[in-house]
Structures are given as C-alpha cells and as structure tokens.
Amino acid sequence: MLESVLIANRGEIACRIIRTARQLGMRTIAVYSEADAGALFMQMADEAHLIGPPPARESYLRIDRIIEVAKRTKAASIHPGYGFLSERAEFAEACAANGIVFVGPPASAINAMGLKDAAKTLVQQAGVPVVPGYHGSKQDPGFLRQKAYEIGYPVLIKAVAGGGGKGMRRVEKAADFDAALESAQREAQNSFGDPRVLVEKYILSPRHIEIQVFADGHGNVVHLFERDCSLQRRHQKVIEEAPAPGMTPEMRQVMGQAAVEAARAVGYVGAGTVEFIADGREGLRPDRFYFMEMNTRLQVEHPVTEAITGLDLVELQFRVASGETLPFSQDDLTIDGHAVEARLYAEDPEKEFLPSTGRLWALEFPESEGIRIDTGVEAGAEVTPYYDPMIAKVIAHGTTREEALDKLADALGQTIVAGPKTNAAFLKKLCEAEGFRAGPFDTGFIDRNIASLGVGPQPLDEVAVSFGASALISREIERLRMAELQKSDEPSSPWSMPDGFQLLGLRSVGVPLRVDGERVEAREVFSREHHGASTVAFGESDPWADAEIDREVDAPHGVYILRHGRQTLVQPYDPFDVDLEHMDEGGTVKAPMHGKLIAIFVQPGDRVEKGQRLAIVEAMKMEHVLVASSNAEVAEIAAEPGAQVAEGARLIVLKTED
C-alpha cells in the first residue's frame, strides 16, 4: 500500500479521500488556496500547504505548484479527486516524470477519452453506438451552423473537453445557434482551457445512464452496474440513483459490456465512468442507447454505487494504484437494494438558482439509519464565489427505491442550513414528486415541472417574519436589561424596562424590518389575555396562532427563521444604512451575485429591447446572462469586463422609455 497521498483538490471530495486514506494508514497532505484557509479538509489532513490565491487557475489548476509541494513533502502519490486537474493528461505525466504515483488512469487513457470527438471515433471502432452528430475538428462558426442544420434541430453543443454540464447548450432553432455557440465556447475555455465543441442531435426523452467501470493493471476490467442521472437542470445532475429504474437484465448486460469494451480500448486502469444517453420514449431498450463520453476519474455520484455494492471505490483506487489485482470478478458482484443521492447546493431556487454565498451560521444533518452525508464544510465556514457551490451530498440506501426516496426526503427535511440559501426544499419536493416516483421520466423532467417544485418567487412567509421580529425584540430587550444591570448593582426597576403598559386600550407598536433585503413594516402587539406579553403581527397572520418553525438561528446582522424548508432573514431596519453606491436608480442592472464580469454586449447610447442580452457574470463555474427588463437606452456602463464584482454592484444603467 502507498505510504502517503497528496490530495490535489478541495472541499467534499478532499474530505472523502482523506477518510479512506486514514483508514489505510496513509499520511495525508492537503493543498489549499487563500480562500480555503482553515477549511475542513485542511483540518482533517495531517499537513496542509498553501498553493496560491483564490482563483482556481492560480492555485488548484497550477500543476507546477502542486508537484513542488508533493516533492517537498515526499508524497508517494497524488489523488486528483474530480474536477480541476483530474482529467488533465499533462498532470498525470508530470506525476510520472517526478516519480509520483498518479491515483488514476495512465495519461494515454486520459488523452484518448478526454476529448469527446476522438473518444466517439475510438469507441465506434470498438462497436459501441454513438449519438449522430459532427465530431470533427473544424470549428468555424459558419461550418458548425451548417452541420447543425444538416443534423436537424434540436441540437446539443458540447465542449470537446471536460464535463459537468460546462460548455453545453441545447439549441432549439437556427436563430439561436450563434449566441449559444459563442457562450458554450467561452465557458469551455474558462472551465477547461479548450474552446472546441462538437454538435450532436438532441435525443428526445433522453435518459442519462452511466456505467461505473474499474480496471487494474493486470488486464482485469469489470463494471459495477449502472447509475441513473436523468434528473438534471442546466445539464447538471441534481439527483442520482442506482440501479436505474426500469433497467432490465438484458439491457444491463449489453450496456455493461459496452462500457467494459470502451475501457479496454484505451488500456484503462482505475475508476472510470462511461456515460450513455438512452432514448426513453418506449422504455429502456438495448438498441436505443448511445455513448456520450467517458469520465476518466471518480464521479461525484460514486456513493450510490458504493451503497449498492458494499465497496469503497477510493480504497480500490489506492489498491489498484499500488499495483494490486482487483479482489473480485464480474460474477462476484451483486446489487443490494437501492440508493439515491441529492446534491445540496448553496443556490436560491426562488431566484432562478442563482448561487448564494456567505457564512454558514448553522449546518446540521440528521443521523439516521441508511443515511450518509458527504460534506466539505461545517458551521462557521464561508461559501465563497470561487468554487462549486456544493454544500453536501445526501445519500440514502433502502431495500427498495420507494424506501430510499422516503429516507432521502426525510433527511432533506431535517437538514438545517442558515446563511446561504439552499435547494434543500426543492430536492425534497423532487423526491416526493409523483412523476419521478412513478415514471417514466427523462432529463427534461425538472424543466417540465418547475412550477410545482417551488421554483421562482414565493410569497413572503408571514409566520417566519413574525417569529423573526419577535426574536429581534427579545434580543433588544435582553441587551437593554444587561446594560441596565451594568449601570447599577441595584435590581432593575420594572418601570425601566420596555413593555406594553399604557393606561387605555391595547397597545400596538410599529416595527420597521428588513426581510430578505426588502423593507417591510410589522406590528408589536401586547395582550392583557397573555399577561402583558407581546408578539409580532405581520400581514394577515394571527400573532397568537399556534404556528411552528424548524429553527431560529441568531446572527450578528439579524435572525434566520427556518420553516418548511425555506429560510427567511429578518433584520432590524436602519433608515441611515443606505448603500448609495448600489442604490437602485430604477433602470440599474446589478450583479446578481459575487463573480467575474465576463462580457458586456452594449455601449452607452445603444437602444435595447426587453429580453436582450446585456452582460454575462460568471460565478461558481457557471455563466449567468443578464437581460434588459424593458425597452430602454443604455445611459452608463459602470464596470469593466474582467472585473470581480460584488453582489448588488452596478453594472449598467438604463434609461427606460417611462
């Protein structure tokens, strides 16, 4: 077994690798950026070394700095995790050149499968079916537009390098092709350093099914069954499960064998995933699936495979990298029950899933049988705009699919997160959605059911506002009481405390608040029936109703009320706390989150129409397009492309027709 490992990654996957490495008695070495100073994975590792500033291109993507740390610490191996450098052949080559074991496939296999166009040609030669499309090297926009016309719309533009939904755009009609191509190429360049794309036919009713393969250095290759990753949004996986619903033994055997042949074709070693798209219009059929790509690394969703096989895939990676033979054959492997994984992200479903950053004032997960939590953060940590917004993976295992989904929904309902907004309530509704449970479903399920899943603006939770305001009032009363006690050793007089006493009638006092950033007015109501106690009434809510909340989380700037999976931030309103720099001027286009301003498409004096693209902000490895909310004239450009912008920062000022 290898004596030590440097983890060339961060967050949840770094923590995951460290846990298994410790169990194997390995010394663990972490590398981190300035943004991750003090992060959980740093604390877990035996030692940690700074490699650069927050941007990934200056830290986690710097092969030279990571190799230098590995040599200085005498690391026997490097585990790349997933993302970042995990599928960069030059990284594997650099490890080999310096006598360090790369815990992954050989560089030749990464090269062969790393570019989707070449990979499709290779697997076709091995007899594996591929999606119809253009997989060549010519990248002229006019040529690609013509190929899309020949293929027939809808088409899918996909980055040649990388994965994870980056550099991928579905195009419904020819008029949208050029803008989609430009956006896909730019995102591919930013994410993978390679702007090249391919164009494929978009399969109607697509099911995204992938096969986990494992190979050792002695010629043995097996598959560890399939995972269904069809629940997606923006081409990114949201919920994954194993085995795939509706999978037949015949289909599993054919797909599994195709995946094994693809791995053999490139001399694969270690853990890998062969991804297929299946036409699900008439159920899963052996003659209707197509190779998409091979991910030459560990997958985010590997825990569901571990749950149904009882294997530790990271341990297998280390053992294979040490030269050991796989301890089982294909016939030794069986499926135990069903497993489902949900990706808990710091994003706001009520604002089109915009990334949400900030401090985690509370973070708690349930401890239940059949529930596993993989996370890389803890309460008090910061969710920054520099990296993927994943907070945790919540994995449930049961004897049946229904039991696993029930467990996952319960676990998500008991999860406590205060600070950044999350998709927890959205994930819970997905687990409970009748269409997902009953099937059939495909990659368009979320888009078709978006309204019923609680996505988009929601009414203000009046009960949460009342609870939050009451908490703020109690906090202020306690502050005044403590201040009074510090002034004198004498017991506090009842006349010195704020209360609802007055000579005539029921007293009701206005309470100005800021709720999720918006100015609102509530009422503090005092009652004789409740012995002079006060509570807060807001809107139509009854201040004395027997309502419940999940959790109240106190923070210096306000109080978070968690209720029914939603989070409401209630703060005292300060009329003097006005951000003049970012004050709304009616036609101001602001940055929706912290990020990098990638492009601005207009100039002062331009006339723009409602829905027209104005700018693009990149945050947490995703592009977010800002559009005009009405017909207007561009009055001012307030930021330069390439600049890092704060949430709420002015970017463009529009002079509307009104």
TrEMBL record:
Swiss-Prot/TrEMBL cofactor(s): biotin
Organism in which the protein naturally occurs: Microvirga tunisiensis
Entry keywords, A to Z: ATP-binding, Biotin, Ligase, Nucleotide-binding, Transit peptide
Segment forming the signal sequence: none
Residues annotated as domain Lipoyl-binding: 582-655
Domain ATP-grasp: 120-322
Protein name, per record: Acetyl/propionyl/methylcrotonyl-CoA carboxylase subunit alpha
Domain Biotin carboxylation residue range list: 1-451
Gene3D superfamilies xrefs: 2.40.50.100, 3.30.700.40, ATP-grasp fold, B domain
Keyword Cytoplasm listed: no
Domain of life: Bacteria
